[in-house]
What does this fold into?
Amino acid sequence: MKRALILLVLVVTVAWLAQGSFANDARGPVAASDPLNAAAPDAPLTPQGACCLNAGDTDPHWECFDGTCFQASGCGPNVNCATCGCSSTEEWNCINNGGYWDSASCFCEYGCDPTGSQQQSCINNGGSWDPFSCTCSYYGCDPTGSQRQACIDAGRQWDQNTCTCADTSVCVCYDPEEVGFDQYDYEYCDGYYYQYCTVTYRDYYQECEGSCSSRYWTEEVTSCYSYGEYCGGGGGGGGGGGSCWDTGDCWCDDWWGICCEYDYCYEEEAFAN
Amino acid sequence: MQRNIRPKVLLIGLTLIAVAGGAAVVAQTAKTKDTKPRVTLYEQTKKAGGKYVLKYKPERGTIYPNVEELAKRSDLIVVGRVLSHKANLTSDERFITSDFLVKVQEVIKGESPRGASLLVSLPGGTHRFADKTFAVIAPVGFKQPEDGGLYVLFLKTKNKDSAFKGQRLVSEGQGLFALTNGVVEPADVTPDDPVSVKYRKMSAVSFLHDIHKAVPRKNNK
It folds into this structure.
C-alpha cells in the first residue's frame, strides 16, 4: 500500500511537470522588439538638453542625411524633418544627365527626348542634335531655321538635307560664304596671371533664291591662354590717370588705379594700337 | 565785453567760410555735370587709338560667408546649362556684357517655367565697332561661364532700368558656381573669398544638399 502511494505521488508529479513544460511551449512567438532598442519614429523625443553644452541642442537629436530624417545619438541641433528634401544624389544624377529635377516632388523628368528617337532622327537627317535644348540644328544650309519655317509656312515640305522645299523651290540657299574676317589680340592681368587673348570675328553671307531673303551674320570666338606669368598681388595696376570720365556717382582711386561708377568698376590696363 | 564779442565774431566768420565752401563745391559739381558729357566706350576706344582694354573688377562691396546668406538674398536660384552666349554693348554704349542663354534644369528657389531658358548677363566681353575698332572689358578674378557647362546661379530679379539685357547675379563675385566633373568650382577665383574657400572642390551632391538646406522646401504639389 505504501509503495502504491509513493508511485502515485511520483506519477502525479511527472504529469504536473510535463503539463507545465507544454504550457510554456504553447506560447506564441516573441513579440518583435525594436531593433537596437530604438525609439519608434513617431515617439516624441525626450530631450536631455541639460546635458548638452549648447542651448537648444538635445541628446539624441534629429538629423537630415541625403533626403531622410534620422535620429542620431549625441548632442546636436534638431533639424526640421519636413525640409530634409530629396536625395541629393538622385538630384545630381538627374541634372548631370540633362534631366529637369523637381525638388518639390523629388522627380526627375527627361522631358524632351526620353527615348532618344528625336536625336536619332535629327542625326539621320544630317542635323546636329543639342541634348540640352532638345533642338536639331542644320547648320549647313539653314543655321537659324528661318528657311525651314518659311517653307512650312508656305504649306510645303521642307527637306533639311538639301534645304529645299518640296517640288518648287520656295527657298534655295547656297552655302554660306565668309565675307569678313577680323582678329584682335589683347592681353591683361587677371589679378594673378597674364592672359593672352585672341578674338576672331568671321562674317558670313548666304545668298538665297526664292522667297527667303539673303542672310548676313557674324561668329565670334574668343580664346585666352596663360603661360603662368604672375602679375598679381601687391596693389593693383599702374592706373589710368585717375580722372573720372563721367559725372554722377563716379570716383577714382589713384593708388589702386581704379575708377568706379554706379555698379561698374574699371581699372585701365592697356592702350594699344 | 570785448571777451564776449570775439568768440561771436569768430563763430560768424567760420559759418560764413563753411557756407561759402559748400556753395563752391555745389557749383563745381553742377559745372562738372553740365560740362562733362557721358563718354561712350567707342569714344574711349577711338581716344585710345582703336583698341581699348579695360579690366573690370566684380563688385565686392558685400561679401557673403556661405550659400545660406547668398540664398536668402536671391530671388531665383537655378541649376542650368549654358547653351550659348553673346557679347553685347549695353544700351548706354558704355559697357559690354556677355549674355548667357541658360537652360534651366532645376529651380531651387523662385519661379521659372520648367525647362525654360533664362538670359543671364555678366559683366565683360568684347565688341567690334563698325569702323573695326575694338574694345574689351576683361573681368578680373572671375571665371566666365563656358558654353555647355553646368552651373548653379544665384540671381536677383531684373531691374527694369538696368542696362543689362538679362538677369544679374545676386553677388557679382559670389553668385556663380560651376559643377564640373561632379565637383564645385566657384567662378570667383579670389583665393581668400570665404565662399570660394568653403565650396571649392566640394562634391556637387553635398553642395546641392547645402543649398537645399538653406532654402525652405516648397510644399509638395
